[in-house]
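Schema walk-through. Below, the input block comes first and the output block second. Nothing else is stored per chain. Lengths vary across the set, and this one has 172 residues.
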Amino acid sequence: MPGEHDVTGDNGKSYLDRFGKKSKGQGWYSFDHTGVHFIGLVNVVNIQQNGLGALGQDQLEWLEDDLRDRSSETPIVVFAHIPLWMVYPEWGWGTDDGAQALTYLKRFGSVTVLNGHIHQVVKKVEGRMTFHTAMSTAFPQPEAGQGPEARPDESGSRQTERLPGHHGCELR
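--- output ---
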């Protein structure tokens, strides 16, 4: 699953040549492992003018078809670089057509949605869907709305928060 820096310049061709040989379209894919269905979505190829990610109609149709015959008891894990939900659209922290993808997932009993991009630990639970964003080890960004724009904090004043029971690095 590419990030926006993986597709800059050649619309993702180099990324697909190296990592996406068995993927569909612009790099999306799914697989099953030990009873869990995993889905990798690509929402960075057609980033909208406001910075929001976009899946596009082809990928949405593929996703709907991929899920169609699955039991609603199948646990689902979805990966996408930019959040599928609107964390803070003013900074491009969301996916323009992500709500459509999420409607296909609502019938499942356990859905975990993972993403990066915003360099923040944010968790949201909505029905049977749990959303997690991942902290970055580099380029810490301000919390949503805590500054004029989503830019790395270059002052060195922000540190990553250590969560109890979790190990990681601390930025100073």
